[in-house]
Amino acid sequence: MRNKPALKINMPENNIYILIIGVASTALLLYDFYVGCLFFLIFLYIVFHNWKTTNIRRKEWNNYIQNLSLDIDETTKKAIMNLPIPLCILEFDGKISWYNNKFHQMTETQDLLGENIDDIVKNLDLRKVLNENKEMYTDVKYKDRDYTVVYNVVKNDQEKNAKYLMMLYWLDKTDYLNLQQKHEDEKNSMMLIQVDGYDDVLKSASEDKRPMINVEIERILSNLENASKSALKRTSKDKFFLVMNKKELKKLESEKFSVLDKIREIDYGNTLPVTISMGIGVDGDSINENLKLASGALDLALGRGGDQAVIKTKDKSVFYGGKSKAVEKTTKVKSRLIGHALREIILESDHVYIMGHKYPDMDALGSAVGIYDICKSCGKNANIVLDSTNESIDIFVDRIESSDYYDGIFIDSEEAIRSCTRNTLVVVVDTHRPNFTECNELLGISDKIVVIDHHRRGVEFINDTVLLFHEIYVSSTCEMVTELVQYMEDNVKINKLTAEGLLAGITLDTKNFAFKTGVRTFEAASYLKKVGADTVEVKKLFNSDISDFITKAEIIQSAKIVYGKICLAYTERVADNINIVIAQAADELLNIKEVEASFVLGKKDDKIFISARSLGETNVHVLMEKLGGGGHKDIAGAQLEGVSLKTAYSMVQDIIDECIKEEK
Q: What is the DSSP letter of 123?
């Protein structure tokens, strides 16, 4: 450690010494007059010399400061004049009072003094700067160059009245943005391509034409490879891998992926259309992440029926295409495998909870009751989670509750959450969106989740399922459950009322076997009829009262036809089952000549319900998806919250207008 001095002596200033000398010389006069006078004269000289020296030093210091200030001012002026970025000084009314050479070169205007900056450069919000008491920035484009303008307010105190001026620094960032854009354009995107139903398509053509279909598919994709300067690799008979940069991908987006249409035009006598599904991953943190995004995008495309391209980033998914209807698969092998796997999962579980979507319909409840009978045949206890009913299922619910066979079948969400464990099996039917389920919390509690659904896949999806049965070509979830019952390893016995509920669900989603009806749909209906379903009792499940007929009549009367083929209507009538009424009205509107699609809106509480129907030409699923809904190509819907009925009606009109423009 350093030793501190024991005593610190503070030496006094010169004035103190002079004062001491003055006092001493005065005191000396009392003892020796002559010697005292001598010392007093010396004292007076010292005082005079000190004053003179101090005065000279003060003047020299002032001169030094003044010269230094002048030097700084001169340097500042030269620095501003030769500033390597454009700079201008404005009055508060926007008039230019000064500018440097770079600003003059930027504007290429002869005389700028006194000109208003708004007449030279647009989009400069000077008023906003005046209201802010800090440095501000704004981006402007001027003569094909991009600038960041830095605003700085300064105060001029040299005048009698303080004057405020505004300094604008123009930072040219064009080269940086161009480099950034080039980097963005050169990013790689991964694309997985799969021919939809490749084997079935080839089988639908004569044997001598099959190689030509294969060659034509490869030719179109090779042309895409050459046109986009990308790299194409065939990985299997029906799958391709393509790498292209983001700039070329944007071109494909601007063309709405016209390659989908070119593939669809392949015709060599094949009765099934040739279509492809494309999954594109882009903007991932690595090439591996882009590949994972592409794989997820392809799953989305296939889950939505194929014949479309899906671009997937970390934040969102964008869909293109989806014009073809899903083709029914003739094989029932998957139903057999799923049925066997479901039986094993049920036997391994402590308990089974079954739930559909909120505001359940007959397809959701009918399929749930079908799963209930499967569990009962396996000797496992099961419950259907149901918080509230509506008119579409009230009759069926009353019949179930009055039957001893279904004793204690329904429980509410609160009870299900309390008793649900990790080993509880949760079966979700007729939806794949977690937020649409009757009790979303169960998905986070249970480790065993099974999803059975037929809707086209959306961005939201229940992940981490132990079993997924998702077939978008099937008419209804009730048809899928009927096949599970029919082809399970053990012969499952179902109740007559269960069979009627399953048949009602099929009847509802096929609109009396008119839409999305395939051979397997009639086979399922035939099986249900065989096990005791009464078609008259099924029809009674859809009975409604006179007020519903009046509401539907009002909707039909107020309907408006736009673009000569789309029917648009709404009702302000208040009803608990308004979502069912507008769906039935949308079906009725399709009976009008030349109408290809219908959209009907209704309001219940704070929600706006939209039902959309199509004869196949207009993809209502894509339109409803833009409003947060979904469904199928010809049957879809959406729910809106926080908007008025009039606003929702305008929103539907806007998406129809957008759709028509894209078609043109």
A: S
